[in-house]
């Protein structure tokens, strides 16, 4: 099973269309969204083609393939218009015998990890900076932001296939990669 990870859409129909084209190109079965779907938030600029309603329609067209967690810019109103559950601050995903802790990153973060076991994977968004690293006996993944990347990183998403996680720019060029070896 191939999983497609994205985060921090922030209401950008322009970048979501590109990310969904990448999802189709990758042939993934599931879209994992790590928060901040519809709104830009008070600290962020408006995104290209800012359109929460259009973003809602685009995401709802894929609702049966989406697993999502709530970000700091998401609200209960968002769950009323999106046709998939959104309000959990975290979710647990088992993939090929490995536990993935999915969250946005504003409550749990690298500096405030939840209880994890050796070999577990901590997946988050929020920082808008891609990560694919191992810290001690825990893997740290962040697909970056499709709409508002920071620290001179590309507009990016992540793909998990087997034991390989790859961060790619929206054109599909590899940016970072890590293989789970435990």
The CATH homologous superfamily is called Metallo-dependent phosphatases
Number of strands: 11
Distance between the termini: 19 Å
CATH class reads Alpha Beta
Q: How many DSSP H or I helices?
A: 3
Largest sheet: 6 strands, mixed
Task: Indicate the percent of residues in helices.
Answer: 10-25%
Q: What are the segments in which pLDDT stays under 50 over at least 5 consecutive residues?
A: none
What is the average of the pLDDT values? Answer: 95
Radius of gyration: 15 Å
Broad structural category: alpha/beta
Strand order of the largest sheet: 3-2-1-9-10-11
Measured by DSSP, the beta-strand proportion falls in 25-35%
What distinguishing features does this structure have?
182 residues; alpha/beta; Purple Acid Phosphatase, chain A, domain 2; six-stranded mixed β-sheet; five-stranded mixed β-sheet; 3 helices; 30% strand; metal ion binding; MPP_YfcE; Calcineurin-like_PHP_lpxH; Phosphodiesterase_MJ0936/Vps29; Phosphoesterase
């Amino acid at each position: 099973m191939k999983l497609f990870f994205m985060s921090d859409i922030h209401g950008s129909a322009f970048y979501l269309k590109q990310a969904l084209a990448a999802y189709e190109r990758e042939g993934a079965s599931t879209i994992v969204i790590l928060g901040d779907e519809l709104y830009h938030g008070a600290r962020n600029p408006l995104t290209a083609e800012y359109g929460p309603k259009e973003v809602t329609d685009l995401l709802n067209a894929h609702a049966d393939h989406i697993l999502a967690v709530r970000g700091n810019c998401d609200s209960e109103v968002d769950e009323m218009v999106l046709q998939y559950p959104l309000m959990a601050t975290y979710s647990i995903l088992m993939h090929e015998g490995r536990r993935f802790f999915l969250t946005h990153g504003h409550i749990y973060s690298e500096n405030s990890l939840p209880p994890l076991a050796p070999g577990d994977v901590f997946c988050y968004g929020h920082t808008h900076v891609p990560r694919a690293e191992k810290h001690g006996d825990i893997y740290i993944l962040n697909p970056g932001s499709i709409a508002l990347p920071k620290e001179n990183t590309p507009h990016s998403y992540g793909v998990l296939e087997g034991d390989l996680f790859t961060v790619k720019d929206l054109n599909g060029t590899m940016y970072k990669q890590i293989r789970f070896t435990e």
